[in-house]
Amino acid sequence: MEPSINGRLLTLWIIVLTIIAWSRVTAGTVGDPTAVEVQRGSVTFDVGTNLLSLSVHGTSDVINASADLREGNEGIFIEQVDAMVPIESLTTGLRLRDEHMRKYIFTTSTGDMPDLRFSSSAVTCPLAAYAPSGCVLQGELAVRGTPRPFAVALKIGRKGDAFRVTGDGKVSLAEYGIPAPSQLGVRTDEQVKVHLDFMAKPGVPVSTSGKGAARPGEPVGTSGKGGRVR
What one-character DSSP code corresponds to residue 114? Predict the structure, then answer.
């Protein structure tokens, strides 16, 4: 009887260990990629000047983006991120300054004014008890159509059935070969602080075969009506 009992116990332990090992392997990728719909949001920037008491603030409430999202036991897995902000949507509250900004910062030598574009492959934001999940999303930001490495420190938290997403990063104009603009003796710094803040709501799951994904070219954005994110 003892060999039979020991054999059953050994088999049981093997089954238990297999289940534990498999759960660890699959913990970070539970569920299919999920589509999210951006409800509202904004991009803001802040840059200092050679005058200590003066800085320039700007904002845009238009964000066009796409991403695949998974929720797992170890955190939130984000992949295939693409985002775009139209240059014309960036405002500082002063028309002359806006024209100056678009001409000297965002206009190429050929007279074109490409929109800001960001792309990134994947990142996992670990779960945090009683606080938003935090991670650094590494990617590329294209200014004047020229991509350069750009990192965004993200914080993602649940708010009901939606996600509250905030992010912070810094853009160096020098890395794009853009001189710091000046006007009437006021010169801006070459480091620009960027802040993101938006709400995103899960939508239709995206299967690995592509069914359920948003159609290419489907309008997205946060201009008041929300937009679909793949």
Answer: P
For the domain covering 31-229, report its CATH number: 2.40.128.110
Report CA dihedral (55, 95, 178, 168) to the nearest 10 degrees: 50
Residue 24 amino acid letter? R
Beta strand segments in 115-223, E: 116-126, 133-143, 146-159, 162-172, 182-183, 186-187, 191-205
Beta bridge partners of 196: 43, 167
Who's near 191: CB < 8 A, 6+ residues apart? Answer: 47, 48, 170, 171, 172, 173
pTM of the model: 0.72
18 vs 131: CA distance, rounded Å = 32
Residue 106's nearest CA partner among 146, 150, 144, 145 is 144
Where do the structural domains in the chain lie, given as residue ranges? 1-29, 31-229
Which residues does the chain have with pLDDT short of 50?
Answer: 1, 20-29, 204-230
Give phi and psi for 159, each to the nearest 5: -140, 90
